[in-house]
Predict the 3D structure of the following.
Amino acid sequence: MTVPDAPGLRRAGVVLCAVEHAGVPSVILIRRAYQGRNAGQWGLPGGRLEAGETPEAAALRELREEIGLAAGPADVLGRLDDFPATSGFVITPIVVALEHPGVPLPSPDEVHSVHHVSLRTLADDDTPRWVPQAAGRSLLQMRLGPGWSVHAPTGAMLWQFREVVLLGRPDARVADFVQPDWTRQ
């Protein structure tokens, strides 16, 4: 699903980067630096589109700038649904597979740490948890480890990757997922 352009809408591209880490198929998550926008939050490498940039180009540029991994158009497997974040950004997740990614080199101004989440963990039945909210809605928590829960927007993108790519459920949609209040920055 693509969100159409509208006045005031800002766009960003992020990379859902599949790699082999210590012999295990995984995706890369980052913990944002503890200063600036989205301080300390879990995320995918990515950021806002520059003038004339496509979501794919922005996502690949940000992957290189934020964690030092180089990917080109041939590494792109596809894209997931645009996610309309409460921050005013529409985020386009680009799925990339890197056969020989090298060692991530996080930019200290933007990234506190780089983490790998196994595809097995993402596919596990116990990973998504739905927490009841007001008006009969539920908040998704992707429980990736002890004390490690990731919410929308990043959690929604991980959930859609899980559903579509890992579990073969192509009709999984995320645009209406509840987001925690602190994501409105």
Notes: The chain is about 15% helix and 35% strand. The longest helix spans residues 55-67. Helices lie at 55-67, 119-123, 154-166.
